Amino acid sequence: MYTPKNIIICLDGTGNQIEENISNVLKLYRTLDKDGTDKQKQVAFYDQGVGTIGQQYTWGVLTQKLWSFLGLATGQGLDKNVLKAYKFISENYHEEEIKYKNGKSKTVRDRIYIFGYSRGAHTARVLAAFIYNMGLIKPAQLHLAGAALTAYKRATQKKGIEELIHFNKITQPYTPAIEFIGVWDTVSSMIVPRKDRLLLPAIEKLRNTRNNPCVKVFRHAMSINENRYMFRLDTWDEPQEFKPNVHSPKKIADQDIFQVWFAGYHGDVGGGNKRADSGISQYPLCWMIKEVMQHGLIFNTRMVDYVALGVPYTKDTEYNYPKPDHKAKIHSSVKSLWLILEILLKFTKYREWMGKGKRFSFFGFYIPWWEPRPIPVDANVHDSAINRRADVQGYNPVNFPTTYNVIEHDGRRSKYW
User: Which of 71, 174, 221, 334 sits most deeply, having the most CB atoms within 10 A of its CB?
Assistant: First the structure.
């Protein structure tokens, strides 16, 4: 009998590279047991993400920095990242129908896990939505994947469903569920000029990127402090139903959803800051690893201790990662080219922040200028953020909720304030 394997997709974002100061996506990838065990096989894929700098020469680096900024602001390159991950899944996925003597049968399927950070988190959600709407094309038909992705994107405008159905009839794809999506601070804002809005930037949402019935478990680590115009948080709708594929007649169960707020800015939640002072970003990493361990993913525990908990790999190890530290430095995103975007007008009806310091509006518009993210009452707040608020002088974000659920560092959801 076939034993299903775990297929793991790790999608970085916001110009991350494989270097010293790595993101939490790359840390998670590093701590994975890439092959699994005799009883549970695993295969893993890592992509550096949208806006990644890949040139090594001076002029190439300058050009790539510009493309990096444009990629982060517009999502340029998203399709390529989605298709690379989709191809990896297609080439590695296997399912098998088991027939029993009593005439009954059961289909055994590989399990798909998808992780992402920033626009890589958005890429992860687009990938899952693409699989839900179009299915998983078999390797021999991967030359049609680009056209299938185009058909999926067209269907987001409340039309084009017929094209999706047509593609499914032609390709006869697999229809797998997504076992687990784990994302850090999803941002999907793209500069898309709209003729019906005087060419002002508009946010376009792709189909099933906020609600996707084929996702069994969803986890989201979110930044309390991030406030940039182009880094507006894209939360996951809840509650939702879990239906393994688009053809399922009814729900199997409620979708397992958990979204938690952490102290710090975008890079403090998703990682990527200087290694020595990135102790605050270890909390969302540890939380994600603990959550997915409960859902069948296999890690190298010694590497988890080293990378996520700051335990020296050996007594002679000189290159060490920091321990989780709620008092560690947080890194403001107020810098460079992002300043320019803060003066772009937004329609007042799309205003997010209505609390203290609400931005002034005029003629139906307002300038967001580092607009705080709204955090709902009774939100899930990690205890590292609560401890930081108590122990670090001056740390009292204006958007900190008045009542909230406390999420303990060991994963327990115990106290309520």
Answer: 221
pLDDT in tens, 58-109: 555 555 556 655 665 556 678 899 999 999 999 999 999 888 888 888 889 9
Ranges assigned E (strand) in 34-189: 42-47, 95-99, 105-109, 111-117, 178-184
Position 115, amino acid: F
Residue with tokens 């793209």: 190
Q: How many CB atoms lie within 10 A of CB 199?
A: 9
Token pair for 150: 């185009």
pLDDT at residue number 353: 60
Q: Do 46 and 26 meet the contact criterion of CB atoms below 8 Å apart?
A: yes
Q: So where are the chain's domains?
A: 6-136+174-332+374-407
Measured distance CA(168)–CA(162) in Å, rounded: 10
Residue 3 scores a pLDDT above 50: yes
**Tens-place pLDDT, residues 210-249:** 999 999 999 999 999 998 877 889 999 999 999 987 777 7
What integer is the mean pLDDT of 381-395?
Answer: 96
The residues near 230 (Cβ < 8 Å, ≥ 6 apart) are: 72, 73, 187, 189, 191, 338, 341
pLDDT of residue 27: 97
Cα 182 to Cα 52, 101, 203, 416: the distances in Å are 21, 39, 23, 24
pTM for the complete prediction? 0.89
Total H helices, total E strands in the chain: 11, 18
> Which residue type does 231 have?
F
Closest to 375 (Cα-Cα) out of 348, 355, 357, 360 = 355
The backbone torsions φ and ψ at residue 304, rounded to the nearest 5 degrees and listed phi first, read -60, -45
Report the C-alpha gap between 347 and 357 in whole angstroms: 17
Q: What is the DSSP letter of 28?
A: H
Q: Are 225 and 269 in contact (CB under 8 A)?
A: no
What six digits make up the tokens of 14? 């916001």
Q: What is the mean pLDDT of the chain?
A: 85
